[in-house]
Q: What sequence folds into this?
């Protein structure tokens, strides 16, 4: 049976537990994370595949509706709230359903099955015409990262290089004195910039090929920075630069 990878987002512990329990009762749902706010949810979306969000609206720091507006690629979303005055706004955000608390398991199941139908229909269309579907997707030149409980927009062309620090990365931007520090993995960063002119040159560094000023003794110079190139990446770098070493 195909399962939807889902997360629940609710600042109230009781509401979150009830959503978790409802998810576990439906065999086609798989809970991958439970979040107390939009910022935790953003971190999950950056590192895991999420098909469906059960999202509270009235949360401290950022409303659920505001959170949805920051996402360039929105998973299917079911809003779960104690307030009915967000209904009009929710339709503008193209959510799957709008559930009022307290939510019965019957009403929850109905909304979840609706999400499953939409997911399967979308998947069938992509499988039927993958090339056509891919050609319609715009190549975004930005993404958002979580920085000190705020969502910060990063312009991909402005990135000079990225440095990995275990569970965090430093994103260096042209014209900015200090890098952006955010909790992400290098693997997830590669996925965000892979369709642009970027390359992994070291286990701890990704560089913007367009920003390279010179390369000497396996060290890339970008502005005042010298970035090491590992032996395992050196030949790939030269190939991408269309450079052949003299024999």
A:
């Amino acid at each position: 049976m195909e399962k939807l990878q889902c997360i629940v987002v609710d600042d109230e512990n009781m509401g979150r537990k009830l959503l978790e329990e409802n998810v576990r009762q439906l065999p086609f749902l798989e809970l991958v994370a439970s979040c107390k706010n939009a910022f935790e949810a953003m971190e999950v979306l950056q590192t895991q595949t999420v098909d469906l969000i059960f999202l509270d609206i009235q949360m401290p720091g950022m409303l659920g509706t505001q959170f949805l507006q920051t996402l360039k690629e929105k998973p299917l979303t079911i809003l779960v709230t104690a307030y009915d005055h967000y209904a009009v706004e929710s339709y503008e955000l193209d959510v799957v359903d709008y559930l009022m608390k307290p939510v019965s398991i019957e009403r929850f199941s109905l909304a979840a099955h609706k999400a499953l139908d939409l997911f399967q229909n979308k998947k069938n269309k992509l499988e039927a015409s993958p090339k056509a579907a891919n050609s319609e997707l715009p190549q975004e030149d930005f993404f958002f990262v979580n920085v000190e409980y705020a969502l910060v927009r990063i312009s991909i062309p402005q990135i000079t290089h990225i440095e990995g620090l275990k569970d965090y990365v430093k994103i260096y931007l042209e014209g900015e004195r200090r890098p952006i520090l955010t909790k992400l993995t290098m693997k997830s960063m590669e996925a965000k910039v892979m369709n642009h002119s970027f390359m992994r040159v070291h286990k701890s560094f990704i560089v913007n090929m367009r920003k390279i000023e010179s390369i000497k003794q396996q060290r890339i110079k970008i502005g005042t920075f010298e970035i090491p190139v590992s032996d395992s990446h050196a030949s790939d770098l030269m190939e991408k630069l269309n450079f052949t070493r003299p024999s």
About this structure: The CA atoms of residues 26 and 109 lie 7 Å apart. The domain at 142-240 is CATH 2.40.50.1020 (OB fold (Dihydrolipoamide Acetyltransferase, E2P)).
